[in-house]
Write a structure and sequence with these properties.
Blueprint lengths: L1 E2 L9 E10 L2 E10 L2 E9 L2 E11 L4 H11 L8 E6 L13 E6 L5 H4 L20 H5 L14 H4 L2 H6 L3 H6 L3 E6 L5 E7 L2 H14 L8 E4 L5 H10 L3 E4 L5 H10 L2 E7 L2 E4 L2
Helix pairs in contact: 1-7, 7-8, 8-9
Length: about 280
C-alpha cells in the first residue's frame, strides 16, 4: 500500500492571546489551543466514484492513519484492501477543505456499497465514536478480529503504563486539551503513541499506523488516557488487541463486551492502583 502526503495546515495546536485572572491580579499572555477541525473520509475504487463514509472532528496530524484505522476498526474492509490513502484533490474543494478530506482507494473489484456501513449523512463528534451508527443493534454488532494469543501486561506492569503514556503526550504538554492512546508490549514497553481531541480518533490513529505500515493491528495492550467507553473496547476487540488499560472508569456495556470477547480490561489505573473488570 502507498500513502500520499503534502504539506498541510493547520498544525495540532494554534496560538491565542488570553487574559488570566488570578487572586493576585490579572495578566495577558500567549497560550496554545488544541486544533479541532473536521475530517471527511471517502472510499474509492477503480471504476467507482469516491463516496463519503464519515465526517469526524479531529486534531490535524496523522490523518491517513486516522482514516485507515477508522475504516479497519469499523470493519468496513480488511487492511489488505487498502491501496492508497491521500488527501482529496477535487477541483471544487474550498481552500479550507484542502487538507480536511481524505480518500482511501481500495483494491480493484472491491464493492464500495457492500462495505459501506454508514449513511452519507452520518457524522461524528470528537466525543464519541459510535454516535453515527444507525441503530443500537448495529452498535452491538461487533466484528471481532483475530484473538490475541500472546501475553498481556500483569497488574504490576499495568500500573506503570499511564505514566509511560504521559511521557509521549507532546500535544497535551502544550495545550492540555487532547486524549492519547498507545500500543504497549506485555512487558510494558510503549510502542506507539498518538494524540487527538477525540479519544476514539487517538485509538484509530494507533491502529491505522500499524495498518499503513503493513503490520498486524493486534497488540498486547492498548493504553488510553481517559475512560474505557464501549467504543474503545469495540475498536480494541476488532483490532485483535489483548488488553485495554484506562486511566478512568469503564462503562457497563464496555465491561460486558470485554468479558464476552476475552479482552482483559483495567480501569482507574495509577502507580498505586488498578481495577480489573474482565
Amino acid at each position: 500500500m502507498t500513502t500520499s502526503a503534502r504539506p498541510r495546515r493547520p498544525g495540532p495546536s494554534v496560538r491565542t492571546r488570553v487574559t488570566e485572572h488570578l487572586a493576585e491580579g490579572t495578566r495577558t499572555h500567549e497560550d496554545r489551543l488544541v486544533t479541532e477541525e473536521p475530517l471527511e473520509i471517502r472510499l474509492a475504487a477503480p471504476g467507482q466514484p469516491a463516496r463519503r463514509v464519515w465526517v469526524t472532528m479531529r486534531t490535524p496530524g496523522h490523518d491517513f492513519e486516522l482514516a485507515a484505522g477508522f475504516a479497519v476498526s469499523e470493519s468496513l474492509f480488511p487492511p489488505s484492501a487498502i491501496r492508497q490513502v491521500a488527501y482529496c484533490t477535487d477541483a471544487d474543494l474550498l481552500p479550507e477543505e484542502e487538507f480536511n478530506v481524505v480518500t482511501i482507494t481500495l483494491a480493484a473489484g472491491t464493492d464500495i456499497d457492500a462495505v459501506h456501513r454508514h449513511e452519507v449523512r452520518s457524522a461524528g463528534s470528537s466525543a464519541c465514536g459510535v454516535c453515527g451508527k444507525d441503530s443500537v443493534l448495529e452498535v452491538l454488532d461487533v466484528v471481532r478480529g483475530s484473538a490475541w494469543t500472546g501475553d498481556v501486561p500483569p497488574p504490576a506492569v499495568v500500573r506503570l503504563l499511564p505514566e509511560r503514556l504521559r511521557t509521549g503526550q507532546r500535544i497535551f504538554e502544550r495545550t492540555g486539551g487532547v486524549h492519547a492512546a498507545a500500543l504497549a508490549s506485555a512487558d510494558g514497553e510503549i510502542e506507539l503513541v498518538r494524540e487527538d481531541v477525540g479519544r476514539h480518533n487517538a485509538v484509530d490513529k494507533v491502529i491505522g499506523a500499524r495498518v499503513l505500515a503493513g503490520e498486524s493491528s493486534g497488540a498486547a495492550c492498548l493504553v488510553v488516557s481517559g475512560r474505557a467507553g464501549f467504543e474503545l473496547v469495540q475498536k480494541a476487540v476488532t483490532a485483535g488487541i489483548g488488553s485495554l488499560v484506562a486511566v478512568g472508569a469503564p462503562t457497563s456495556l464496555s465491561v460486558d463486551l470485554a468479558r464476552q470477547a476475552g479482552l482483559t480490561l483495567h480501569g482507574f489505573t495509577s502507580p498505586g492502583r488498578c481495577v480489573q473488570y474482565a
